[in-house]
Amino acid sequence: MGAFIFLFLLCVFCFQSKVTYATRCGDAGPEIHYPYQIKGQQQQHKSLPGFELLCKDNLTTIHFPSYGDLVVKSISYDTKNIHLLDPKNCAHHVFLNLNLSLTPFHYFYVLKNYTYLNCSTTLPHPLVEVPCLSASSYHVYTVDPAVPVPGSCDGVKTVAIPFAYSPYLSDKSLGLRLTWHLREPLDNEAAVNRTRGSYKSRNIVIGSSICVFVMAMLLLISMKVRGATRNLHQKEGQLLQS
Ligand SMILES: *[C@@H]1O[C@H](CO)[C@@H](O)[C@H](O)[C@H]1NC(C)=O
Ligand SMILES: *[C@@H]1O[C@H](CO)[C@@H](O)[C@H](O)[C@H]1NC(C)=O
Ligand SMILES: *[C@@H]1O[C@H](CO)[C@@H](O)[C@H](O)[C@H]1NC(C)=O
Ligand SMILES: *[C@@H]1O[C@H](CO)[C@@H](O)[C@H](O)[C@H]1NC(C)=O
Ligand SMILES: *[C@@H]1O[C@H](CO)[C@@H](O)[C@H](O)[C@H]1NC(C)=O
């Protein structure tokens, strides 16, 4: 009986860990479910363009054609917020190149236009060069687009970004929060229904497992009690006979 219960618990445990394992990259990655999907994994819903994630060395990554791969640090499904990290540790390199116009994403922040300048000489204080975009022979700055371009600089691009470079805001993941919107409301509703359905079926499985377990326990207890009363009756009989 004890062995049976042990095996049963093992089964429940395996089943549950299998369900949750399928929705993460590695052990510490963010949970992945609708509208996201791990590319190449068994399809739970029709994959939505832009929402495909990749597992690379236990890291969750997302590919942007305009930039390349970014690491997914976390996903908040209720606030529709995906927090990314640049593997090259250069948020301003991402801001300069990332073009979200053909993706379901936009920045989670209020944006402002800044011009990236590429200068052959350093510019005076308070301007500070973006270290990860600069080298000894050139210096890259983010400036207000209204500022006239100095003679030693080329204007690289004017882009709407969360903030200008500041040495005080040099956290590698700062600013790399995006939010998403879904394009096909009908398809999505069906998919949400399906996700709800899959949660429901998972809950039913877990619920019925617990139910069977409780019943097994009750059976065990009742057998013990019956055994004990039988022993008692036997003892009583022996006492009466003697
Ligand atoms: C990924 O995680 C698993 C389990 O934690 C570990 O066995 C494996 O070595 C990891 N792979 C890499 C490439 O880090
Ligand atoms: C982003 O891509 C779209 C479409 O390819 C293009 O029209 C737009 O100019 C690009 N934006 C920037 C800032 O490069
Ligand atoms: C940035 O500049 C472009 C072109 O002048 C303009 O269309 C856009 O609205 C501006 N974006 C912001 C956030 O100010
Ligand atoms: C700045 O210019 C240098 C060469 O002058 C070039 O190698 C570098 O890629 C440029 N950087 C940017 C961000 O445009
Ligand atoms: C989703 O489920 C709700 C109720 O559960 C239903 O009214 C709705 O029609 C469903 N949508 C689709 C697209 O199946």
TrEMBL record:
Cellular compartments per GO CC: membrane
The keyword Membrane appears for this protein: yes
Pfam families reported in the protein's UniProt record: GUB_WAK_bind
Its membrane topology: Single-pass membrane protein
Pathway(s) it belongs to: Protein modification; protein ubiquitination
Molecular function (Gene Ontology), one example: zinc ion binding
Transmembrane regions: 204-223
UniProt EC number: 2.3.2.27
Leader peptide range in chain numbering: 1-22
Catalytic activity: S-ubiquitinyl-[E2 ubiquitin-conjugating enzyme]-L-cysteine + [acceptor protein]-L-lysine = [E2 ubiquitin-conjugating enzyme]-L-cysteine + N(6)-ubiquitinyl-[acceptor protein]-L-lysine
Subcellular location: Membrane
Keyword Transmembrane helix recorded: yes
Wall-associated receptor kinase galacturonan-binding domain mapped to chain residues: 24-86
Keyword field: Membrane, Metal-binding, Signal, Transferase, Transmembrane, Transmembrane helix, Ubl conjugation pathway, Zinc, Zinc-finger
InterPro entries: ATL20-22-like, WAK_GUB
Similarity comment: Belongs to the RING-type zinc finger family. ATL subfamily.
Protein name as catalogued: RING-type E3 ubiquitin transferase
Species whose genome carries this gene: Glycine soja
